[in-house]
Amino acid sequence: QVQLVESGGGLVQAGGSLRLSCAASGRTFSNYVMGWFRQAPGKEREFVTAISGSGGATAYADSVKGRFTISRDNAKNTVYLQTNSLKVEDTAVYYCAARRYGLGRSVSGYDSWGQGTQVTVSS
């Protein structure tokens, strides 16, 4: 497993942007697929995006496609989530997660989780 720490959340107006970061430690970072999930109050945790170990493949939920971009810097053991054109419905706690294989979209497929960072979008 890897240890994950998210940062970069905050309060932003609708239409604004935030860049979330997730720093990893403990294992060879490039061996892991990294994902971002989010959980709004009263809702289940949902898939947002994932990126392969090399960074060459990505997957996105339809709700964020074209607005959010995932990237990683394996030299810095960090994965990023650039969020643009934020909407009120993007308000949630955002979690990063790690798994060994496959750009999976299921919460249960990920082995390691960060503590989350709050993103609040105001109207």
Give a written overview of the molecule.
By secondary structure, the protein is mainly beta. The protein has no helices and 11 strands. The strands form 2 sheets. Strands 2, 4, 5, 6, 9, 10 and 11 form a 7-stranded mixed β-sheet that branches. A 4-stranded antiparallel β-sheet has the order 1-3-8-7, with no helix packed on it. The N and C termini lie far apart (39 Å). The mean pLDDT is 96.
Helix-strand topology string: EEEEEEEEEEE
The helical percent reads under 10%
| Proportion in β-strands | over 45%
What is the number of beta strands? 11
Summary tags:
single chain; about 120 residues; mainly beta; 11 strands; about 0% helix
Brief digest:
By secondary structure, the protein is mainly beta. It contains no helices and 11 strands. It has strands at residues 3-7, 10-13, 18-25, 33-39, 46-51, 58-60, 68-73, 78-83, 92-99, 112-113, 117-122.
Write the layout of secondary structure elements.
Blueprint: E1 3-7, E2 10-13, E3 18-25, E4 33-39, E5 46-51, E6 58-60, E7 68-73, E8 78-83, E9 92-99, E10 112-113, E11 117-122
Parallel strand pairs: 2-11
Antiparallel strand pairs: 1-3, 3-8, 4-5, 4-9, 5-6, 7-8, 9-10, 9-11
